[in-house]
Amino acid sequence: MKNLLRPAIVLFIGLTLITGGIYPLLTTAIGKTLFSRQTEGTLIEKDGKVIGSVLIGQHFTEPKYFWGRPSATSPYPNNATASSGSNQGPLNPALVDAVKHRISALQQADPGNGLPVPIDLVTASASGLDPEISPAAARYQINRVARARNLPPARIGELVIQHTEGRQLAVLGEPRVNVLKLNLALDTLH
Question: Which of 17, 90, 112, 151 lies at 20 to 30 Å from 118 by C-alpha?
C-alpha cells in the first residue's frame, strides 16, 4: 500500500503546484506582457474616468444614442456578474412576448421607420452582455438618432460606416458595430 500511496501523493502535490500555481502565474505574466490592454478589460476612458469596456455592452436608452442588444442579465441590464442567456427557446411564450414588446418599443421610438426590425435589436445574446450590433441594426436606428441630434441622417450613416468592423481574420464572425465606441463618436459631433 505504501508503494502506491507515495507516488499518488507526490503526483497530487506536483500537479497542484503546476496547474494551481506555475501555470496561472505564467499565463498571467505572458498576458500582461503581450496583451496588457486586453488583460485590463479593454477599458475606455473619457476625461480620465473609466466609462465602459469594449467587451461589455452598455445600456443606452436615450433617443440620441444607438441602442445595443437587449440584455438577459437581471435585475440590471449588462450586469457582468450575472452573465447568462435567457435560456428561452424559440417557442417559449415568454420569449415571443418579450420580442413583441421590444419590437413595439422600437416602433414607438421611431414611428416613421418602415425598415424591418433586425433580430439583434429584439433578442439577447447568449452572454447577455453583447457590446456590438449588426450594421443592419445600426442602420435601422440612424433616422431616430439623427432626428434627436438635429443632424443629417447621411452624417450619422457615415459614422456608422466608419465604426463598422469587418470579419476577424477576414473569415471569422460577421461585420459588427461596437455601440459604445459609436456613441462616443456621436458625442464628438457638433
Answer: 151
Amino acid at site 47: D
Name the nearest CA neighbour of 178 among 54, 51, 50. Answer: 54
The tally of CA atoms less than 13 A away on the side-chain side of residue 42 is 11
What three-state secondary structure class fits 176?
Answer: strand
Digit-coded pLDDT (tens) for 72-126: 777 777 777 777 766 778 888 988 898 999 999 999 999 999 999 999 999 987 7
Contacting residues for 4 by C-beta, under 8 A, at least 6 apart: none
Of 167, 162, 168, nearest in space to 184 by CA: 162
- Which one-letter amino acid corresponds to residue 163? H
What DSSP assignment string belongs to 47-107? TTEEEEETTB-----STTS--------SSSTT-GGG-------TT-HHHHHHHHHHHHHHH
Please name the amino acid found at residue 48: G
Residues 141, 175, 165: CA angle, nearest 5 degrees: 90
